[in-house]
Design a protein that fits this description.
globular; 7 strands
Length: 461
């Protein structure tokens, strides 16, 4: 009898706890509205919303390869399955045409959709929560003036129990802190603006901060680097692998133009980011750069000296006749491939972005692993459409795995003072065999998937 009472008591506790969690997790729906009349929306507000949406890279995740801008359908791989981005055009049935401004702000601020469902944090509301209501209204105005696209989004492919949205309320209780942004009185106006944009709309930490087993950012490893789409996202804190230390000026040039003479050209998932930032107000880009430079901190004398040595080595190579350039510490196969296939562009004689970066200055060669340089070597840097840009041929199908490993080992030994990579062959084989799917972007942010979908979208249709 006593055992039955204990079981009944435990069952009661479980039922009460479950009911309490459901009550905690429940969110009400917001009534649908008719889509606003585009002609009645203030064009200045739309133009500002276009800049903010570009800073937020909304088009990057909400545009599928070959799809219409903002119509969603991009599959986002996660450790828990694939999540498909939503249609955020003003289509009433499949988009957000029936969403009110209040519903849109709630999604941005709380991660809850119009119908009251918790959103998966693949939509980075843990960053967007910082965005002000004023800026949210501008983004809403911009989206409501896009072309309405009746595109139905595939169902998410998530395993149990991750397909139960209500459980996201528990994730939020652990990891989500609702905004909005509050300025720090100890920071300058520019640094506060930079923090607001970097941690808010730009959500840089979403890619540059590693995540724990539940998909939340590891706050103790802020901006310490991660892997996204099988590209290595470099640390943008004091542990940056860049041979020449970044500063606010070099970051601003890179973010705005997609390249810097001492750091090379943007590639991988960073290419759409710099393509978008090339069209927004310069003061916003400078604020982001100032904040990131502040996070990186002032380099110590040893770091400065190493950067000066890398620049000196690059200058020396550019002044040495091509015919006599050999490396005393080279290996036969790797050196032969480099001299015949790489050195002609990477000799430093033609400035970036139209010439190859001298690899003494390469973050990829000095990174913790070889993944980025594997990707670039195999798939190249395709030219942008309709504008000058960096370009590099693809060597997939030209080099076999042994040759590529030899080339990478040679470059690491010749151009870096770091220890040899330990997993290069594993990464090469996985990438060449398609086990690591690698999206390739042009510098203008477009992908190679036909038809092309521009990452830049005009403020008015």
């Amino acid at each position: 009898m006593r055992a039955l009472r204990i079981i009944a008591g435990l069952a009661t506790i479980v039922v009460v706890a479950a009911a309490a969690f459901v009550a905690y997790a429940w969110r009400s729906a917001i009534d649908p509205v008719e889509p606003p009349v585009q002609a009645n929306i203030d064009r200045a507000l739309v133009a500002r919303g276009a800049d903010l949406a570009a800073i937020g890279n909304c088009n990057v995740c909400h545009t599928a390869p070959g799809g219409q801008p903002f119509a969603g359908g991009l599959g986002i791989p996660t450790p828990f399955g694939t999540i498909y981005s939503t249609n955020i055009t003003p289509d009433p049935e499949n988009g957000i045409g029936h969403w009110s401004e209040a519903a849109f702000i709630r999604a941005m601020r709380e991660g809850v959709d119009r119908e009251g469902r918790h959103l998966y944090p693949a939509f980075p509301y843990d960053h967007y929560t910082l965005v002000s209501n004023e800026d949210n209204r501008a983004i809403y105005a911009f989206l409501m003036t896009r072309k309405a696209v009746s595109a139905r989004i595939p169902a998410n492919e998530l395993s149990f129990p991750f397909n139960i949205r209500m459980l996201l309320a528990g994730w939020k209780a652990l990891y989500f802190r609702e905004g909005p942004f509050q300025p720090d009185p100890n920071r300058s106006a520019e640094l506060n603006r930079g923090y607001y944009l970097t941690e808010g709309l730009s959500h840089c930490g979403a890619c540059h901060t590693p995540r724990n087993r539940l998909g939340a950012e590891k706050k103790g490893e802020y901006l310490a680097g991660a892997e996204v789409e099988n590209w290595t996202v470099y640390p943008i804190n004091a542990n940056s692998p860049a041979p020449v230390p970044w500063n606010a000026d070099s970051l601003a040039i890179y973010l705005r133009h997609g390249w810097h003479e001492q750091h090379g050209a943007s590639r991988g998932s960073m290419a759409p980011v710099t393509a978008n930032l090339g069209s927004v107000p310069e003061e916003d880009v400078k604020a982001i750069a100032a904040y990131v430079a502040d996070v990186m901190g002032t380099p110590n004398q040893e770091r400065i000296s190493r950067g000066e040595a890398a620049l000196a080595a690059a200058r020396k190579e550019s002044e040495t006749p091509l015919a006599v350039r050999t490396a005393a510490n080279g290996n036969g196969v790797g050196e032969a491939i480099f001299v015949s296939a790489c050195q002609g562009c990477h000799d430093g004689r033609r400035p970036v972005p139209f010439g190859g970066l001298n690899l003494h200055l390469s973050s990829a060669v000095n990174a913790a692993n070889a993944q980025n340089i594997i990707n670039v070597t195999l798939f190249g840097l395709p030219a942008a459409r309709g504008e000058p840009s960096a370009i590099m041929p693809a060597y997939r199908g030209v080099l076999n795995a042994d040759q590529l490993v030899a080339l990478l080992d040679y470059m690491r030994k010749r151009f870096s003072d770091k220890p040899a990579w330990t997993d290069t062959r594993e990464r090469v084989v996985a990438t060449m065999n398609g086990q690591r799917e690698v999206p390739i972007y042009r510098m203008d942010g477009t992908t190679q998937a036909p038809p092309e979908t521009s990452m830049r979208t005009a403020p008015w249709p």
